[in-house]
User: Which sequence fits this backbone?
């Protein structure tokens, strides 16, 4: 289940946009081996709101594009790969039969700015940011060069399935 909550008025959001976001998330999760019902929340915000959240949660008082709030903990270097079948998750992680992966806060205003800055479409930028965050919810990270390479490759592979390229 994907919950979408539009709490901004800077960028128009329509059913087509939301439909694409849902398809990209669903595909990414299936590609990553999530084969049980899941729950993710995405909140669309503006730059000021994400700056406040970033300041409150990370103590970084600046605008960012996306924030991920995973509900599951993974050992360092581990990601979700059919681990539910391996009984690595406990019943407490399920909510009414759903694997609760976490929340994503996305500044559509910042995504629009970045799409113009990077010279690609707004849809490409938002889908990239959403996939990036979904991978974080699954335990991926990019703090070390090797991890970053693995994560970037997964992002581009998933985006290419939708012909969303740079």
Assistant:
């Amino acid at each position: 289940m994907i919950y979408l909550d539009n709490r901004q008025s800077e960028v128009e959001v329509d059913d087509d946009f939301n439909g694409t976001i849902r398809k990209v998330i669903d595909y990414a999760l299936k590609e990553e081996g999530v084969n049980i019902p899941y729950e993710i929340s995405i909140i669309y915000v503006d730059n000021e709101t994400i700056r406040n959240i970033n300041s409150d949660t990370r103590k970084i008082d600046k605008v960012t594009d996306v924030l991920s709030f995973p509900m599951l903990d993974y050992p360092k270097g581990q990601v979700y790969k059919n681990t539910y079948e391996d009984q690595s998750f406990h019943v407490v992680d399920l909510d009414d039969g759903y694997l609760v992966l976490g929340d994503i806060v996305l500044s559509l205003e910042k995504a629009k700015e970045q799409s113009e800055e990077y010279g690609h479409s707004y849809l490409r930028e938002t889908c990239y940011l959403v996939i990036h965050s979904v991978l974080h919810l699954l335990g991926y990270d990019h703090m070390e060069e090797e991890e970053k390479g693995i994560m970037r490759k997964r992002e581009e592979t998933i985006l290419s399935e939708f012909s969303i390229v740079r």
